Amino acid sequence: MALTAYDLTGRTAFVTGAASGIGRASSALLAEAGATVHCADMDEKGLDGTRSLIADAGGTAHTHPLDVSDRTQVARAIEHITGAGRLDIVAAIAGIMHSSPVLDTRDEDLDRVLAVNLKGTLYTCQEGARAMIAVGAPGSIVTMASGAVDAATAGLLCYSVSKAAVVQLTKTLATELGPHSIRVNAVAPGWVRTPMTERHDEELQHRAESAMARRSPLRRVGEPGDVAHAVLHLASDASAFTTGQILRPNGGVAMPW
Ligand code: NAD
Fold first, then answer.
1. Rounded to an integer, what distance in angstroms lies between the CA atom of residue 23 and that of residue 250?
2. Cα of 65 to ligand 1 centre, how many Å?
3. Mean pLDDT of 144-168
4. Whole-number Cα distances in Å, 168 to 83, 97, 140, 181
5. What's the 30 CA to ligand 1 centre distance in angstroms?
6. Would you state the pLDDT for residue 256?
7. Helix (H) or strand (E) holding 21
8. Do 249 and 221 meet the contact criterion of CB atoms below 8 Å apart?
9. Other beta carbons less than 10 A from residue 126's beta carbon
């Protein structure tokens, strides 16, 4: 890499949601920048795909099949990593989407989305930060919010609430972890073409994609690589004086539909 602030040689990263979409692209880019990447996800087959992608490009990746909504599993993975060395970067990307009108939303819908998107992010950040603090190492934590926090969208109550909570979690962590030289920032992407959005309800997908084509100054939807570059920026020393911030790779529109 020509720009040394983005060089992650010798650094170790833990990335959740690494089996697919934005998490896979971010893992691959962090590895390309030189980091050893520990990829975590529930989807073991997808994790193998990410590891091969990174290995084929000459990078180093390890896989950790786990459910981020289970603190014990997250803690075990981090322990495994720190048993072998220092942890420098955490990217809490795992997430799920659920859509239903508010009046049809069931307790179990909200509970599941909050368990993965909020608690999974919290556990990942807490366990990662504890490992960094234990060895007095500086670090960078990147969380995954969404354009859904900037405007209300019909049908996305559970998801929007969970991502708004991620924003507050990120800002609070930034204030508490700053004195330990640990930076915490969120990425809030707009509509990005990934397996998550592709398997989502067709009507919402159509509305979002046509609104992006019409209203985004860039006239396109996002690709996973667009978001991965935001993750790399926040993970690296290029953002050494940036913490508690929300970076929005969204093609110029917060919420288009
Ligand atoms: P994706 O479905 O392609 O990837 C999500 C990954 O998270 C999957 O590999 C899945 O197996 C994993 N995952 C889900 N629940 C998990 C759990 N409990 N434990 C471990 N892994 C789990 O989706 P994506 O679009 O790449 O989304 C990645 C993140 O980006 C999510 O947090 C999502 O909310 C956020 N995001 C996506 C978009 C978009 O338009 N695609 C926009 C804004 C934010």
1. 17
2. 15
3. 94
4. 31, 19, 17, 19
5. 17
6. 57
7. helix 21-32
8. no
9. 16
Asked if residue 241 lies in contact with residue 40, where contact means CB atoms within 8 angstroms, the answer is: no
Helix (H) or strand (E) holding 41, with range, is: strand 36-41
CATH 3.40.50.720 fits 7-247, yes or no: yes
CA dist., res. 43 & res. 66, Å (int): 8
Smallest CA separation from ligand 1 atom 6, residue: 17
Dist. CA 126 → ligand 1 center (Å): 19
Residues 6+ apart with CB under 8 A from 204: 99, 155, 257
Report pLDDT digits (tens) over 40-93: 999 999 999 999 999 999 999 999 999 999 999 999 999 999 999 999 999 999
DSSP state of 240: T
Q: Residue ranges of the domains in the chain?
A: 7-247
Query: Which residues are catalytic, by number?
Result: 159
| Beta-carbon contacts of residue 57 (< 8 Å; ≥ 6 apart) | 28, 31, 32
The token pair at 213 is 């084509």
Q: Is 58 left (phi over 0), alpha (psi -120 to 50) or beta?
A: left
Kind plus residue range of the DSSP H or E element containing 101: none
Sheet holding 139-144, edge to edge: 60-65, 36-41, 12-16, 89-92, 139-144, 182-187, 246-247
What residue ranges line ligand 1, CB within 6 angstroms? Answer: 16-17, 19-23, 41-43, 46, 67-69, 93-96, 116, 120, 144, 146, 189, 191-192, 194-197
Convert the pLDDT of each residue in 159-172 to its tens digit.
999 999 999 999 99
Burial class from Cβ neighbours inside 10 Å (0-12, 13-18, 19+) for residue 219 reads exposed
Amino acid identity at 26: S
